[in-house]
């Protein structure tokens, strides 16, 4: 779950600012994810999820159709190991959907194996809960 949230945060930040996430640089140099992504409480993950959801919402509200074909760059690594990566905004958004489907599906399968109903199984349910939380009429 923290990986999915971190992926959204990192990709949107790279698209907006051209800066790679610290995790990308760290992983490029060490081959490991950041240790701060492990061992979080459910309350901490929920807080991060709310922050990332708000970030995604702000990003999407500003997005225009012509932005989908726009390329952006970011740098991974430092010094002689640095490399510039170019991506496309529309393709990045498809990748985020792919990440969401893959990893949330994995989490749902694990919960089902334990006879636990996953908290979210559809976009419609997520949207209903999101609207209720935000008190939007």
Describe the structure.
This protein has a single domain (2-134), classed as Four Helix Bundle (Hemerythrin (Met), subunit A), CATH 1.20.120. The protein contains five helices and two strands, in the order αααββαα. Helix 1 (2-17) packs parallel to helix 3 and helix 1 runs antiparallel to helix 4 (89-113). The mean pLDDT is 83. The two termini are 29 Å apart. The protein has a two-stranded antiparallel sheet with strand order 1-2. The protein is globular. The longest helix has 25 residues, at 89-113. It has helices spanning 2-17, 22-30, 42-62, 89-113, 123-134; strands at 71-76, 83-88.
Helix and strand arrangement:
Layout: H1 2-17, H2 22-30, H3 42-62, E1 71-76, E2 83-88, H4 89-113, H5 123-134
Antiparallel strand pairs: 1-2
Question: What is shown here, in short?
Answer:
61% of the residues lie in helices and 9% in strands.
Number of helices: 5
> How does the helix and strand content classify structurally?
mainly alpha
**Residue share in helices?**
55-70%
The CATH class assignment is: Mainly Alpha
Give me the CATH fold name: Four Helix Bundle (Hemerythrin (Met), subunit A)
Shape assignment? globular
Number of domains: 1
Note poorly predicted spans.
none
Strand content: 5-15%
Extended strand count: 2
Gyration radius, in Å = 17 Å
